Amino acid sequence: MAVDDPPPRPRVTVVLADAASRRGAADRGSTDLTEQTPIGEALVKGLMRAQLALALRLALVVAAALGTLPLLFAVAPAVGAVKVFGVHLPWLLLGVLSFPFLVLIGALYVRWAERNEQDFTALIRRPER
Amino acid sequence: MNPYLAPGLVVVVLLTVAIGAYGLRFARTTSDFLVASRSVSPSWNAAAISGEYLSAASFLGVAGLVLRYGVDVLWYPVGFAAGYLALLLFVAAPLRRSGAFTLPDFCQVRLRSTALRRLATAFVLFIGCLYMLPQLQGAGLTFATLTGGSYAWGALVVAVVVTANVAFGGMRAITFVQAFQYWLKLTALAVPIIFLILQWQADGRPEVTPPPGAVFPAATTVVIQQDAVLDGVRPVKEGQELHFAAGAPVPEVSTVDAESGDDWLLPDKGGLFSTYSLILATFLGTMGLPHVLVRFYTNPDGASARRTTLVVLAMVGLFYLLPTMYGVLGRIYTPQLLMTGNTDAVVLLLPEAALGDGHLGRLLGALVTAGALAAFLSTSSGLLTSVAGVIFTDVLRPGRSGSIRDFRIATLLAASVPTGLALYVSDMDVSRVVGLAFAVAASSFCPLLVLGIWWRRLTDVGAIAGLIAGGGAAMAAVLLTVLGPPLSGWHAEVVGQPAAWTVPLAFLVMVTVSLATGRRVPPDVGATMLRLHAPEALRT
């Protein structure tokens, strides 16, 4: 019925086209993700690689700082005999300082891991940039 | 006997039951029982996780080990805390996002294998029982040490209180109970240590390792536990009473393994294999303990699971500053424990030994005992909840119609085995068994979780082979250590601290077999990885 149609038609088509194009831009990333397109796979792999690299780097810091201590004490016993404030160094390092050190590493991880996730979300939400 | 002891213990048990009953008002559905309906706030959850984690091994065992062996065993508390860092770095957020409630659930979600799920169930039950047994034993021994009552009653009372609380309140109630017990345990060690250090100052700061050797601070009577030789010359018989005057040197007893002088004060020159094995077991074992993982499901999303883990790391780290000081002060005030070998009791006995048996010493003594009871109660409650959860979903398999009654049956089943064992086996070494449980967890679930979360090419066959090889080897080492004949030389190190070879073995077998069975990689691994790693905000 051509007579009934004209008034609403331009408005309807324009609105639909506008909304569809806007949603398409915003959702293309999510669709890539959920439908497992090659782009989506690559995005998830990128996030996993970033998170794993971060975790491994911090684990390496802990291994280098704490993990080498038994070896150090075994190879250089003089280090173990050093006194700081009247307390032998190994007691101070293991009994006291190791705990704040672990918490510090954990806090850094939480901060950077959340930043990785924010970057990822931003990438998905605004694929045109 | 200390007159404040009984009231203190009764108050702890009553508060536990009361808080459990208060929580019961909110627990209406099966989901409430199992996962607290996922509505627990991060700070409550973190306190609950910490309360659940700090077991008898942490509360009593660490101080006892420090008293006995000195600086080398400080790796225990460091590793117990660092385990949460490994959990945070590699597991926390993806595991929460997987939606898995138990370890077998995770196997199902990630690899879609029923056989793997059954194997994982067997490991959860083994680790759960292995970890619960020393809690009940510790409870029995504490009761026997302090009240002169029987070992069996102590173990039985704790078992009954815990079973009732879990069966009637489930996890919802347990969350409040555990959070309360964290703060109780922290207070119970933190308040007395202030008075103990002030007393040490007032005594003119006696040296921890005086050059001529340890001396008795006061006149002491020691009852010898086993036939032995004192200082290598004087033979003594079991049950013999020895009297020492104040200032008399503490003799070395041939049957008690302890270190003295510089051996105690400075790191060992040898023993690197054991030290690294212990580090590996504790750093990687925490993530594989069934009662630890179950808690992550109560976080609303992955990011909050991470934040909760960080708070737990801080809370647990704060706690572990304290037991070391008890072990050190124990060298000065309770050296007779080095003669009897009953070093696990140092936390319980130190307040009265240092402060005298006036009101202050006795009140503080009752406080630490109440804290010890909280340690037994909270860890065994958490273990029981998670083991019962696994029995409920994987052994009873009630399907969708699972009722609260079935969960209660599962709880009774889960409690009966370790309780029965604890009543008949009383001579197993408490802290050693806990260390072995960590080794089994580190060689089975740690590789499964880490590879499952970060490596797409893991297959069900690879995971099964790795679990059997690494976890099986660790299990065999545990059974050999606990039941077998005493070993010596390098055999003892390799079997007694197996993690240094079983953990790499598990990883190696899992990776090799997965690569060889590459065609069995689940077809939906991409979707699973998306679910594990993408922030929840992106889900539609």
Question: What labels would you give this structure?
Answer:
heterodimer, A: 129 residues, mainly alpha, two-stranded antiparallel sheet, 2 strands, disordered N terminus, B: mainly alpha, two-stranded antiparallel ribbon, Na/Glc_symporter_sf (chain B), Sodium:Solute_Symporter (chain B), acetate transmembrane transporter activity (chain B), transmembrane (chain B)
Spans where pLDDT lies below 50 across 5 or more residues of chain B: none
Give Rg of chain A in angstroms: 28 Å
The main β sheet of chain B shows up as: 2 strands, antiparallel
Q: How confident is the prediction overall: mean pLDDT of chain A?
A: 75
Number of helices of chain A: 5
Termini separation of chain A: 44 Å
**Extended strand count of chain A:** 2
Number of helices, where a helix is a run of at least 4 consecutive DSSP H or I residues of chain B? 22
Largest interface: A-B, 46 and 47 residues
Poorly predicted runs of 5 or more residues of chain A = 1-5, 12-26
Shape of chain A: elongated
**What is the percent of helical residues of chain A?**
over 70%
- Work out the helicity level of chain B: over 70%
The overall pLDDT of chain B, averaged over residues, is 82
Order of helices and strands of chain B: HHHHHHHHHEEEEHHHHHHHHHHHHH
Strand arrangement in the largest pleated sheet of chain B: 1-4
CATH topology label of one domain in chain B: Amino acid/polyamine transporter I
Number of domains of chain A: 1
Keywords (chain A): Membrane, Transmembrane, Transmembrane helix
Pfam families (chain A): DUF485
Pfam families (chain B): SSF (PF00474)
GO cellular component, one term (chain B): plasma membrane
